[in-house]
Amino acid sequence: MNKDFLCLTDWARADLDALFALARDLKARHKRGEPHRLLAGKTLGMIFEKSSTRTRVSFEAGMVHLGGHALFLAPGNTQMGRGEPIKDTARCLARYVDGVMIRTFSQQIVEEFASYCDVPVINGLTDSYHPCQVMADLLTVIEHKGGYEGLCFCWIGDGNNMANSWINAAAVLGFELHVATPQGYEPDAGVRERAARMGARVLYTNDIMAAARGADVLNTDVWASMGQEAEQQAREKAFQGFQINMDVVRAAAPECIVMHCLPAHRDEEITDEVMESSHSVIYDEAENRLHVQKAIMATLMGGK
Ligand code: CP
Ligand code: NVA
Q: Which one of the listed residues 107, 133, 243, 293 is annotated catalytic?
């Protein structure tokens, strides 16, 4: 097992399956109102260089459930925002806290931070990956479909951090994945090559209906991610036709489930109708951030 949770391909299938099992156990205990203070007295530092609703609240609430405490660290209020080197921040924080969660821009920042930090580091989203979200999504699929094996997953929209993490998950866990993006917005070439070397079964296409046909799980995300706000208008043009609407849902398997990591732009990448339909498991996904991250923290921070 890895010291950190930075990228899904750093983890073995058996270890990810163990995280899903622990997440389900912790969720059941939480629902029964049973104490599960696996990290009593422990502290998590949370560095946010981008905005967040779900990630911040689920990590902070999760630490309280586990008997610990979480600290919100915004660059504007710390020396990081004034240019203190990552390696100094990482080495000092490791002397105070038992784990660090980071949301930032480049994946290199979290990699460098983790290499200088003696305590576990968890990736709370970078421009390249969003591994905690895909773990929550897979936990939701397991709950609704009884497992992920034998299912066909479909990604529609931008080849962004979420798409990259889905490709990583397909490489580690072995399920079939269809990825439909507009031309020029395909997922990272390095991510695709690594997945191919790992034997991943991924179809890349610019044809949204070909990708959706028969899929058990439909998934999408905003067209312009955090940091790409200036590209919003150009992207709106480029992504025309890459919307999950009821026609796309009807092309998928009859009992298909629809996912979105949120926040969503309703009637842009996904229609309001689909989000409110019986196919949507979007709020279960949001809830499962809490349970899966508690499993990740308990495992990495020594409480299990
Ligand atoms: N899905 C997700 O990471 O949401 P936030 O940006 O609100 O944390
Ligand atoms: N791709 C989105 C995900 C937000 C949770 C972004 O990076 O902004």
A: 133
Expressed as residue numbers, the domain containing 173 is 133-285
In this structure, the residues whose C-beta lies within 6 A of any atom of ligand 2 are 125, 130, 160-162, 221-222, 225-226, 261
Ligand 2 atom having least distance to the Cα of 227 = 8
Ligand 2: centre distance to CA 125 (Å):
8
The string of pLDDT tens digits covering residues 110-141 is 999 999 999 999 999 999 999 999 999 999 99
Catalytic-residue membership of 261? yes
pTM: 0.98
CATH number where 294 lies: 3.40.50.1370
- Which ligand 2 atom is nearest residue 162's CA? 1
Q: Which residue has the tokens 């080849």?
A: 159
Secondary structure of residue 101 in the 3-state scheme: strand
Same domain, 151 and 73: no
Q: Are residues 229 and 148 in the same domain?
A: yes
